[in-house]
Design brief:
The protein is mainly alpha-helical and 249 residues long. It has one domain (3-231). It has helices at residues 6-10, 24-47, 63-84, 87-117, 131-138, 140-152, 160-185, 191-195, 198-227. InterPro entries: ADTRP_AIG1.
Length: 249
């Protein structure tokens, strides 16, 4: 097989995938559409300033916006990998995905779950946003990250214990960031946090860390179901491995 044909083959299918991934061009288009969606959400923040716009930390006091920023970074690296076929960019994108995909799922589950109980717990009444913007912040990033995971990425090899470590670092790192912002701004970004004392916030972030770890393990299982990994011998692969089939000269 000529060296010129290898790059085209490398991106089609990972040895642990049953389903062939979309073409390089399709992958780039999907990532570009995702970036357009994420950018429109950031534009909404700029066009519709609120109390967080002038506060310390800007809108990055919200877990939603931190997740959106991480998803934007993940898709930016993914798009660059699509157009350059740089192996290190694929590696970096897949490492970022292990954090960004479970985090977006966590944000979606927490936001819509709490909002179904009482919308005023996640957003003050005076800051209600249009449905299209709400979906752009709290649903579309999850859908884009799930599609990228299931059809454009190699399988994760992260296990439950490392998943718990990653999620704990993110959850409690965000809590410390919140407290730093609160010490300067004098308010928490989510009304629910205003109602909780310190023990309550610790419990909330502990549960969030557990949920994110469960998300990671569940997404890994879902990947296996979609790609039917149980039916074939599973070759060893690292999370950052470029999708490549077994091929012969």
């Amino acid at each position: 097989m000529s060296a010129s044909k290898v790059p085209e083959i490398l991106i089609k299918k990972h040895p642990q995938q049953r389903l062939s991934s979309p073409s390089r061009e399709t992958s780039a288009i999907i990532h570009l559409i995702g970036l357009a969606s994420f950018s429109s959400s950031f534009k909404f923040l700029l066009d519709n300033p609120n109390y967080a716009s002038e506060g310390y930390g800007w809108h990055f006091v919200f877990l939603t916006i931190l997740g959106l920023a991480l998803s934007t970074l993940t898709f930016t690296i993914a798009f660059l990998a699509d157009i350059t076929l740089a192996r290190r960019l694929f590696l970096l994108k897949n490492v970022l995905s292990v954090c960004s995909a479970p985090l977006e799922v966590l944000i979606t589950v927490l936001y819509w779950g709490i909002k179904s109980i009482d919308p005023k717990l996640v957003m003050p009444e005076e800051d209600v946003i249009p449905l299209y913007a709400d979906l752009g912040f709290h649903l579309l990033p999850t859908l884009f990250m799930l599609f990228d995971l299931l059809y454009l990425s190699p399988p994760w090899t992260v296990t439950a214990f490392p998943a718990m470590g990653i999620s704990s670092c993110i959850a409690f790192g965000y809590w410390f960031w919140l407290e730093q912002c609160y010490s300067i701004n004098g308010w928490y970004p989510y009304p629910l946090l205003e109602l909780l004392d310190t023990k309550g916030r610790i419990a909330l972030f502990t549960v969030s860390a557990l949920l994110m770890a469960v998300n990671t393990v569940t997404l890994k299982w879902l990947y296996g179901r979609v790609n039917d990994l149980g039916r074939v011998e599973q070759p060893k692969a690292r999370p950052g491995d470029l999708k490549k089939p077994d091929y012969h000269e």
